[in-house]
Each structure stands twice: as C-alpha cells, then as structure tokens.
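Lab notes, practical 5.
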Amino acid sequence: MSIENPALYRLMVWLSPSFPVGAFSYSHGLEYLIESRAVTDEASLCAWIKDVLRHGSGLSDGILFAHAWRATRERDGAALRDIVALAAALAPSAERHLETTAQGTAFCNMVRQAWLVPTLDALGDAWDQPVAYPVAVAIAAGDHGIPLGPALLAYLHALSANLVSAGVRLIPLGQSAGQRITAAIEATLAEIAEEAEGARLDEIGSALLLTDIASMRHETQYTRLFRS
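Output from the prediction step:
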C-alpha cells in the first residue's frame, strides 16, 4: 500500500507536536501575560491568540512563509537569503529571536537528516546565520512541492495550537476549554492564511506592543516554566 497524498503526510509529520523542534518550551510571552493577569481565562486567552494571529507574528510569519516558499520554488537564492535575514531581524526581543531561530535550526537539522531538501542543504552550506522557523518550514514545503495554501494553513495552525497548549497549562484550563478555543480560531486562521498568501513583504508589521513588552519582561521573570 502506498501513500496517495505524500504532501499531507509530510505536513502532518513536520508540524506534529512530536516533531523535535522544542515548540512546547516556548510561550511567546504568554507566561508573563498570565503572571501579570493580562490573560486570566478562556475568553482572554482566545482573544489574545486571535490578536497574535491577526495583528502580530501570525500574519508576519505567514507573509515570510509565502515569500520563502515562492523563492524556493523559483530557485531564487538571492531573494531567499534576503528573506532569511529579514525574518531573523524582525524578532522584537532576545527571547522571541531565540524562539523562532532555535525552532528553525532544529527543524532544518531534523528534516535534512530524514528527507531530501536540496534548498535547505544549499542554504546550510552557504549561510552561517540561523533560519527562522516559518522560513525553514516554507523551504522544506517548497522543496517537496507541497502547495502553498495547505502548507501555510498547517503552519499557522501549529503556531496557534502551541499557544493554546501553553495557555491550558499555565492558567490553567481544562482540555475542553483548549478545544473550544481551537474551534473558535478556525475562521481567523483561514483568513490570515489567505491574506498572507497574497501580501507583499513590505506589508509585514505588528501592533501587539503589549506582547512584545511581555516577551522582554519574561527574560527577568522570577519563576519561569517556558523559555519565552
């Protein structure tokens, strides 16, 4: 028996919580927001995740993902290197930089050991700086001919699922609340994926100053379970 849709299989593997990129250890500043009582329950967690997707790193990562995927498919090495540099430079704090580049590095290392990813191989040989997580996943998807739409939506879902999981553990909430939030953000994920797919690179931006400040204050938070 052969797999009829290898693209779907690879997406499920690469973006599974069990894929060893260490996503479970990052909260995107949420740990400080809960400590400071800015996020306290199911409703405020759901609202915060929607804001991250729409006004923060969700849309920005999605735009970077789309452009990295296209540069990979077009074999445009110069454009891809510019995107890699831009993605790393956009991180607003030391912990957020660690969050995206550590996961990106882990993803690159693991995928290169198990699958043929010529663009990631070439980039690894020619580039001595870390690759941000959305860019790394986009390059692998492009190398394997996985369509942009499903790959982008899957990446954004993985991002939001990790935030839901962090909130469920930190507030804490029950698993039912986590699933209600996952259901509630479905339409937002689809909208952001569609918007990001057609956006220009110069449309990247963020309006979530509180979350950026939270990630900075988390660096000196007295008790921490997460790395960001």
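Observations recorded by the TA: The first helix runs from residue 6 to 14. The mean pLDDT is 93.
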